[in-house]
Design a protein that fits this description.
The complex is a heterodimer. By secondary structure, chain A is mainly alpha-helical. Chain A is built from 18 helices and no strands. Chain A starts with a helix and ends with a helix. The chains are: A mainly alpha, B alpha+beta.
């Protein structure tokens, strides 16, 4: 009987081929990605001139996108590490979703930085001419480290599942079988192997938390260590981390709903998961709202001349529609939806997740761009295009392409590997039944 | 009655345009203030300042073309050179070596400056008469500064008494007193002054050199005379730079030791963990093969 139940779980959680919707999804993403790549080729050929980046706004939507990717990648440490170390077991089916979001996001965060540099060979200069005192170097180090740790955190729990996957030779096909065997043919379900894996995952869970905090704190320091209105804050590290946790959790809500609906995983990603994840998002949104109030109220209370122009631009000026949209979409409306029990039902939670993610993307744009348009010294004798920033189609295409790229990584991962850990789910259900 | 009308019309059409024209061509008067400068008894230059009273206030007038002449006669032979006043209303002319013949002719010297007619100003003239003089600067043992003023009287250089001389140290374009006295008056016997140097701690250049200056300012007879002398009386400046020091703002490879220790310790610690975990994968593999 137990074996039968186990087989059923395996059958239900094995990676599935793309259906018609899946194929449309993948083709759409590939088109967006290809278009972004074409725009990038144009940027390589003509230089950064094809962008709207100029002397003042030298960090536009590329860096906004970078901060967004770094932020969303933090979810890996939240779901996998924080909840694991605090003995929260309901998050088990969500760990792999969170980890693959983290891996794809951090990989594209690194790539988008190279895009922003203009000439990609300049990345090499970071290593040959970089200064240890510069937060940019810290960011390069910490992003690389976080990517490795996230990959390991994805790989170790995957080992027992690879053993299961290898067992379905006919279903897998030649290439996938080869891949599974390359990655996990040595896994024999030996207790010693489990012991090492468990220990490794625990070590990784402990290691990833400070590294995850470092990655986002260092990213915030890229801004906060420069003396500019809007960035000159001692609060920036905590402000960024809280925002990162929120957008990551919002991303997980979206992924949970899509995987649950399209792979028929209602038994594994249940309403209870949405309910609990919804509560987590409310808590994180409230924390982020608190930091936002700190970040804006304190300088607005003092209203120093240099800050005034920046803040008024956000509150009532050029950027006010985006500002109020970002605040409402990323925090206020999701709180209002998810605070109610019915709001934590899958569809509503999915809606709230989308609002959080979209609002958070614009929030990153607001962190980066308006400050650059309000330097301490007035802008004199510069072309009009220097005094405003609106991304060119190449920038939109590249940013969109990078987002599509990250989604493609997640999509292909879910096609190749079980998006819900099979072995851990079996153990969880087994333990639950024993209890 | 009709005759009056014709007269009135005649007056209106003749006088009113004349008045209007007269108003439009009315120009302000320009005042040219000419000054003579003797620098180190070697070079001489003239400075003219163009001023005009506009709206009840004297204002410095830029962009006025001026022509300088030596002697009182405005002739081609006496032409020294031309210039245009700058934004401070000033134009400067170095007296050229070509004017030497005119210069040595007499003990007193006249200069003239003429401004050209412009849309706003009529031609204007400024005159200056000076007696040729030299201001000599020297030092004595015990850091005593002496300055002597001599002027050309009856073809002979004779000491001049009763002229105020300022002695100072050249600092950032200004003069710093050498002691508590700012100005000294030349005596009747030698035409000299004596000042004790009391600024021992003043920083000089790398060799301790400072520049002493004796100067006579805006004297009605002799003009402006200034003489400099370099003496090693200052404190030697030891050039220090923090360019190569380790700091958060230093160049590559010069980060603070504490930062290097901290950063490298963290990086090494985390990567040791990663390497350890990679070794664990190898161990898992080994267990699978056994």
């Amino acid at each position: 009987m137990e074996k039968l139940a186990e087989n059923k779980i395996i059958e239900e959680l094995l990676p599935q081929k793309f259906g018609k919707q899946g194929q449309i999804w993948v083709i759409s993403l590939l088109i967006v990605f290809a278009f972004g790549f074409y725009a990038y080729c144009r940027q390589l050929y003509y230089g950064l001139e094809v962008t709207a980046l100029r002397d003042y706004v030298s960090w536009g939507i590329y860096i906004s996108n970078f901060v967004f990717f770094v932020a969303i990648s933090l979810v890996g440490s939240l779901i996998t590490a924080v909840l694991r170390l605090t003995n929260v077991h309901w998050s088990t089916p969500l760990t792999r979703i969170a980890e693959i979001i983290a891996v794809s996001a951090i990989a594209f965060a690194g790539l988008i930085i190279i895009v922003d540099m203009g000439r990609p060979d300049r990345f090499y200069n970071l290593f040959t001419h970089g200064r240890l005192q510069s937060p940019i170097i810290w960011d390069v180090i910490v992003i690389t480290t976080y990517l490795f740790i996230s990959l390991l955190l994805l790989y170790f729990p995957l080992l027992p599942d690879l053993k299961i996957l290898i067992g379905f030779k006919e279903r897998n096909g030649k290439w996938l079988q080869k891949l599974y065997e390359f990655l996990g043919s040595f896994w024999k379900n030996k207790p010693a192997q489990f012991k090492i894996t468990e220990k490794a995952v625990n070590i990784l869970s402990i290691t990833i938390i400070p590294v995850a905090f470092a990655i986002h704190t260092v990213t915030s320091w890229l801004f906060a260590t420069t003396y500019r209105p809007g960035w000159d804050s001692t609060n920036f590290g905590a402000y960024f981390i809280s925002g990162a946790f929120l957008v990551g959790a919002g991303g997980v809500l979206i992924a949970m709903y899509i995987f649950r609906t399209h792979y028929n995983l209602e038994k594994y990603i249940t309403n209870e998961h949405f309910d609990k994840m919804g509560k987590v998002v409310v808590l994180l949104a409230l924390i982020y709202l608190y930091f936002n109030i700190n970040e804006f109220l304190v300088p607005a209370f003092k209203m120093k001349k240099s800050e005034e122009e920046h803040l008024m631009g956000l509150f009532t000026g050029e950027f006010s529609p985006i500002f109020w949209f970002a605040i409402s979409a990323s925090m206020l409306v999701p709180i209002l939806i998810l605070i109610f029990k019915n709001g934590r039902k899958p569809k509503w939670a999915f809606t709230a997740g989308i609002l959080v993610v979209v609002g958070s993307w614009f929030k990153r744009f607001l962190i980066v761009t308006p400050t650059l348009l309000h330097p301490f010294l007035p802008m004199h004798d510069v072309p009009k295009s220097y005094m405003h920033y609106f991304p060119t189609w190449e920038e939109w295409a590249i940013a969109g392409g990078s987002l599509a790229g990250a989604l493609l990584v997640i999509t292909f991962f879910a096609r190749i590997f079980p998006i819900i850990p099979i072995h851990e789910t079996i153990i969880e259900i087994d333990n639950h039944e024993k209890l | 009655m009709r005759n009056y009308k014709i007269v009135n019309l005649f007056l209106f059409f003749t006088i009113v345009p004349c008045l209007l024209m007269a108003q439009s061509v009315e120009k302000n008067s320009l005042s040219l203030n000419l000054k003579y400068y003797n620098d180190n008894n070697i070079t001489h230059h003239l400075l003219v300042q163009a001023k005009s009273k506009i709206n009840g206030k004297f204002q410095l007038i830029p962009n006025i073309p001026v022509t300088f002449y030596i002697n009182s006669d405005v002739t081609k032979e006496n032409l020294l050179g031309k210039g245009v006043t700058n934004e401070k209303g000033e134009a400067i002319l170095e007296i050229p070596p070509a004017a030497k013949d005119s210069w040595v002719k007499s003990t007193n010297q006249n200069f003239v400056v003429i401004s050209n007619t412009t849309k706003q100003f009529d031609e204007s003239r400024g005159d200056l008469a000076i007696t040729k003089a030299k201001l000599k600067l020297d030092t004595l043992e015990g850091k005593i500064i002496i300055a002597k003023l001599v002027a050309l009287v009856d073809d002979q250089w004779k000491p001049i008494a009763g002229v105020d001389v300022m002695v100072g140290i050249k600092r950032l374009g200004g003069l710093l007193n050498v002691n508590e006295t700012q100005s000294f008056t030349t005596d009747s016997t030698t035409g000299g002054i004596s000042a004790e140097f009391k600024r021992d701690s003043i920083p000089g250049d790398q060799k301790g050199n400072i520049v002493l200056v004796a100067t006579i300012v805006d004297n009605d007879i002799y003009g402006n005379l200034s003489t400099e002398m370099t003496v090693p009386w200052g404190k030697k400046m030891i050039y220090t730079t923090n360019f190569d020091h380790r700091s958060l703002f230093a160049r590559r490879g010069h980060s603070p030791i504490w930062l290097e220790l901290l950063a490298y310790t963290i990086v090494v610690a985390v990567w040791l963990v990663i390497i350890y975990l990679l070794i664990q994968i190898k161990n898992i593999k080994k267990l699978g093969v056994e």
